[in-house]
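Figure 2 data, in text form.
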Amino acid sequence: MSASSWLLALHSSSDTLAVGLQRLGAGAAPDPARLASFPLGRRLSNELLPCVEELLPAEQWPQLGRLVVATGPGGFTGTRLTLVLARTLAQQLAIPLHGFSSFQLIARRLAAPGGAMAGAERFWLTQELPRRGVVAGVYGPDAAAFGGVAEWEPPRLFPPGEALPEGPRSQALVEPEADAAQLLALGQLAAARTLPGPWQPVLPLYPTSPVEGL
């Protein structure tokens, strides 16, 4: 990894694409992150690459040293497209790729000091799906977990009629640029630990059938 290597973050688990870029090896005085969001909706398939190029032109992609991507839960097409791009870049450039659940990124924000779930040992993150139920997972601070927040139960669908267990809970609301910043922080941590990051295991997370509208 050269001194000029970039860390690229891609997040499309909502209708808004978020892209983050930061120099790798930030150390004690990290370079400022560059964050941008694009409310694309269904236009993501046509505009993904131009949006990424607004932060890092394609001719500079060989300078990438590591990639991080949100794996969902999210819409089938949006999540799949950014995963395909990230996996392709990681394979072609022979660089590490790390995938993180969009719920885990939200959980890190909420569990941080001043966050809505700060101080909670474990809490549910929930996302309501009209006519299909609720997608929910359990998270909580854990010093031994990568990034300091553990995923005790991965997101799954609770269909209508299946009650969610009791416990503190919060809605899983994506904040595109803030969650892209979480991706960058986790990517920097992975780089500091020189984690390998093979691209093959990084796959989209679909708690429901892969249809649009999640």
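Caption note: Residues 76-93 form the longest helix (18 residues).
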